[in-house]
Design brief:
The protein has 612 residues and is α/β, with parallel strands linked by helices. It is 33% helix and 17% strand. The protein folds into three domains: 177 residues, no CATH class; 246 residues, 3-Layer(aba) Sandwich (Rossmann fold), CATH 3.40.50; 41 residues, no CATH class. Strands 10, 11, 12, 16, 17, 18, 19, 20 and 21 form a nine-stranded mixed β-sheet that branches.
């Protein structure tokens, strides 16, 4: 009599949890996550000399040839470990640390790794370079010596005893212990057949993730960039090329029970085979390594097209031949001339429209408030003529006359109109990320459209010259800039219709949009020129304009705008903007809106402040 399947699964599940807990060398009860310390670690890294454009991301697990105990071999654990390392673009730390039995020590380990990485340069020898970095850090900052000693001694107490290891591995373990306690004292590390137990206080060489983009594909398809379902996760996966298997090689096993009878066989059109697997991203998160094949399967059942851009009769209306713009390559530390193609466009099917009914009460209130600012006048005292008597000047005159010294002055206050010397260009991000839902009825793009409309109503009442533009991109060959209201056009129903016709799409090549806005705003005669950018996230695109490359190019575009005496300012709804916007726009060059529905009110409040 066989064991029931349910009982077998129940026993197997309990056994797996039991053996995994027994073989775990960490301390889950004291676990600390990278997400909880990301902001403080980034500030610490930059404050101690780390490159400002470096991103902080989670590190994937790495395969190391370790000597595992019999419980770990039975459970199949500890085959992969997560270690800290840094590359040219980012610093990668473990997503969670449970190395020590105390959460405070795990937090200190995160801080130590950030400090060590801030002063780390190219790694040539794992042991000697980490000793050199540690020694230099302890000499420059003696206050860290006690903290480091606690971390090192607590870790050594958890490492395997040299007496329990073979001779070569024991010699290597003795050297690592001495290098931890006395950094810089070990010059030679003996060889061993197996890797030593991981040293969490040290940085490891850069992980070779073998990204699929860097391999030679049979045919590179446009739009085949990897898209992450959850962009808040910073970890990467290790990819490995595998040989194609078409099932025609090897021994063919034929089983008679696999034959269908006539009544059992049904020729069904399985349309679902051609649809995207909605669980693919979730399954990929659970895999430690991704295997990629050069084989391209051609499925039947229909023709699927992935078009980069809509047909010309459905796309927005281009204005003119477009222009070429430079782009900053931080790797080469130079501007790439004529690297980006930008096309100004008008939204198609944009009909003149009145302001939506739901916005009219708020817009009327804004118009009244901004009209009061428009009527403001400058008061000039001690004038020979004016609209009212200057009592302060008259009292001063009487006091001076009694003391025998009397200066000539006027006794009137003259009110002069305030000179309009401010021009503003509002640039809105229209990428596909703005299609995200705020609630059951509204999206982020709806909040941006409302902000553009209310901003236009307020500045039209104020009388300041202003322009409205939107932007998106699809690689460097297709940067799209939506012309909603140029400086030369009055605000009216035609502008409102273009704003209401906006649709989200594509990506965010922010540097090119800022450079084009700088050109337009730089042609204004006003002395004070304000460039307002409304966005919901970091700069990104399908090509290499991702991560540090996009951040560095945007920062360079902002610096170019400031050199032309423009004031760039970014307003964002991204809660994680504090990690990258200070580097791009400066500590006082951005503002974060907690709730997107408050974007319009915050935008106008900031304009009042910046206008002063």
């Amino acid at each position: 009599m066989g064991i029931p399947l349910e009982l077998e699964e129940w026993v197997g599940g309990h056994w797996h949890r039991f053996i995994t807990r027994r073989s775990d060398s960490g301390f889950p009860q004291a676990e600390v996550t990278l997400e909880s310390m990301a902001r403080s670690l980034a500030m610490l890294f930059h404050a101690f000399g780390g490159e400002s454009g470096m991103a902080l991301e989670g590190a994937p697990a790495r395969q190391l040839l370790l000597r595992r105990g019999w419980l770990q071999r039975i459970a199949g654990t500890c085959g992969q470990v997560t270690v800290a390392w840094r590359s040219q673009d980012c610093l990668r730390l473990p997503e969670r640390l449970a190395v020590y039995p105390e959460a405070g020590l795990n937090r200190e380990l995160y801080r130590w790794l950030a400090l060590l990485a801030a002063g780390a340069d190219g790694i040539a020898h794992w042991g000697r370079d980490n000793q050199r970095w540690t020694s230099r850090l302890l000499v420059e900052y003696p206050a860290l010596r006690e903290r480091y000693r606690q971390l090192a001694e607590a870790h050594i107490a958890l490492r395997p005893e040299p007496d329990s290891l073979p001779r070569a591995e024991a010699a290597l373990e003795d050297c690592i212990r001495q290098a931890l306690l006395e950094p810089g004292s070990v010059e030679h590390f003996p060889r061993a057949d197996r890797a030593p137990w991981p040293v969490p206080l040290w940085l490891y060489p850069e992980g070779r993730l073998q990204e699929p983009q860097s391999t030679h594909l049979v045919e590179e398809e446009p739009g085949s960039g990897v898209r992450h379902a959850d962009q808040t996760r910073g970890s990467s996966k290790r990819a490995q090329r595998v040989a194609d298997s078409q099932g025609k090689d090897g021994l063919l096993l034929f089983r008679l029970e696999n034959l269908f009878s006539w009544s059992e066989y049904l020729d069904l059109d399985r349309c679902g085979d051609d649809e995207e697997d909605q669980d693919a991203a979730r399954v990929a998160e659970d895999l430690d390594q991704l295997a990629l094949s050069r084989q391209r399967s051609h499925k039947g059942g229909g023709l699927r097209l992935d078009l980069d851009l809509p047909a010309a009769e459905l796309d927005d209306i281009p204005l003119g031949p477009g222009c070429r713009l430079p782009e900053w390559d931080y790797r080469q530390q130079r501007l790439l001339d004529d690297h980006v193609s930008l096309q100004q466009m008008l939204p198609r099917d944009a009909l003149p429209s009145a302001l939506p009914e739901r916005l009219r009460p708020f817009a009327l209130r804004l118009r009244r408030q901004f009209e009061q600012l428009r009527d403001g006048r400058q008061r000039r005292r001690q004038r020979p003529q004016g609209e009212e008597l200057d009592l302060d000047a008259w009292l001063d005159f009487q006091v001076e006359r009694k003391h025998g010294t009397c200066a000539e002055r006027g006794f009137f206050v003259e009110r002069l109109p305030v000179r309009r010397d401010l021009a503003c260009l509002l640039l809105a991000d229209l990428s596909m990320s703005t299609d995200a839902a705020l609630d059951n009825e509204r999206r982020v793009i709806d909040a941006i459209i409302d902000s553009l409309l209310l901003f236009g109503e307020a500045l039209d009442a104020l009388g300041d010259p202003f322009a409205l533009y939107g932007f998106s991109s699809l690689r460097r060959q297709q940067v799209r800039m939506q012309v909603l209201k140029p400086f030369t056009e009055p605000y009216g129903d035609a502008v409102r219709g273009r704003v209401l016709a906006l649709r989200p799409g594509y990506y965010t090549r922010m540097g090119a949009a800022i450079r084009q806005a700088t050109r337009l705003l730089g042609a204004c005669p006003q002395k004070r020129r304000l460039l307002l950018l409304v966005s919901d996230g970091k700069p990104n695109d399908l090509d290499r304009y991702e991560g540090r490359y996009g951040v560095e190019d945007t920062r360079q575009a902002v610096l170019e705008a400031r050199r032309q005496n423009l004031l760039p300012f970014c307003i964002t709804i991204d809660r994680e903007a504090g990690q990258y916007l200070p580097y791009m726009f400066g500590a006082n060059g951005y503002a974060v809106v907690a709730r997107p529905e408050h974007l319009a009110a915050r935008l106008l409040h900031l304009y009042r402040q910046l206008r002063r």
